[in-house]
Amino acid sequence: MRYAQGGGLTDAGRAARERIRLQAVERFEDGQKNGEIAAALRVTERSVERWRRQWRERGEAGVLSKGSPGRPRLSDAQIARLERELERGPLVHGWADQRWTLARIKTLIGRLFHVSYTVEGTWLLKRHGWSWQQPARRAIERDDAAVEGVEEGDLAAGKSTAAACGGWIVFEDEAGQSMTPPRARTWGRIGHTPVVRIRGRGSGRVSMAGMACYKPGERSRLIYAIREYRGRKGEPKGFGWRDFRDLIVRARIQLGRPIVLVWDNARIHLVPPLKAFFEASADWLTVFQLPTYAPDLNPQEGVWSLVKRDIGNLAAADLGQINRAVKRKLKQIQYRPHLIDGCLAGTDLIMDG
């Protein structure tokens, strides 16, 4: 069968379907069985049963198609507007939880165009590339306008600065892992949710700071630092400004070139001692701040996803086992620059010359 754009039959396809139905009527009159007719006409037996029932009730006229369903109730311009409104999200249109359901889409169509659809009728969106999906999360406080300007503004300036001085663009971010491992998918019997046993006791945290480093024509690098916190008196819970300063200096030594540092505006990144360090290192260090709540612009977030996926469902005996598992995965990523490149590609940022 030939289908028109948007899912409907073409005129040629509709005529071919009519010929098949008329052939089925002839076979009904000859007394053939449904299975024989389905095999001969290459259609399903269920279709033949339906045609036979219609033929018995109304004769040949009952079997024939009712024709084209008619013109769509929404124009192409209205469909385009509907898609734009759906992309704005349910929150803008007054719903608290962020789910587009068919019932809500039906309501939105009525509000926008004063056209009444059934819930089933809103499946028309499937013809236009929409489907039922698992959504990603994004903070309500995020400034999308600032995020959209990153590529054209700060990041573009950062790439120009790095190219002018022959330096590296370095994306920095921190993460942590407690004794409770991240949940990972696993196979299980249908209808029975798999249960993964983990250790309920134990405390502490492994803090991680990492730098994904990029330079056109060079192998991408990963530089990181790890710290354990076991809850002892006077023990720092995470990284301080001196740790970040030392990590930046280590990156400068290992990369051997000027650095354009891109990181978020966490409070610890904005303390006066770090600002003084940046000013004193201006000959080899340039710093750009990412917008608030924009982790999807930082490829180092992708590195953390790789690490946590590897330790999913890990029933660690102690914090040291978590530490060793994290170090092992980070070391593996260091020797696989294509993974670091993939994390950059996941942000849709482009690193050209």
Report on this model:
It is a single chain. It contains 13 helices and 5 strands. With 353 residues, the protein is an alpha/beta fold. A 5-stranded mixed sheet has the order 3-2-1-4-5, sandwiched between helices. A hairpin with a 6-residue loop joins strand 2 and strand 3. Helix 2 crosses helix 3, helix 7 packs parallel to helix 8 and helix 11 packs across helix 12. The two termini are 50 Å apart.
Which keywords apply here?
353 residues, 5-stranded mixed sheet, 11% strand, disordered N terminus, single chain, 13 helices, elongated, 43% helix, alpha/beta
Question: Brief overview, please?
Answer:
The chain has helices at 11-29, 34-41, 45-58, 60-63, 76-88, 102-113, 144-152, 154-165, 241-255, 272-280, 299-310, 319-334, 337-345, and strands at residues 168-178, 205-214, 221-229, 259-263, 285-289.
Number of strands: 5
Straight-line distance between termini: 50 Å
Q: Supply the number of helical segments.
A: 13
Structural class: alpha/beta
Give the helix level as a range of percent: 40-55%
Overall pLDDT, averaged? 81
Q: Shape, please? A: elongated
Rg, nearest Å: 30 Å
Major sheet details: 5 strands, mixed
Proportion of residues in β-strands: 5-15%
| H and E string | HHHHHHHHEEEHEHEHHH
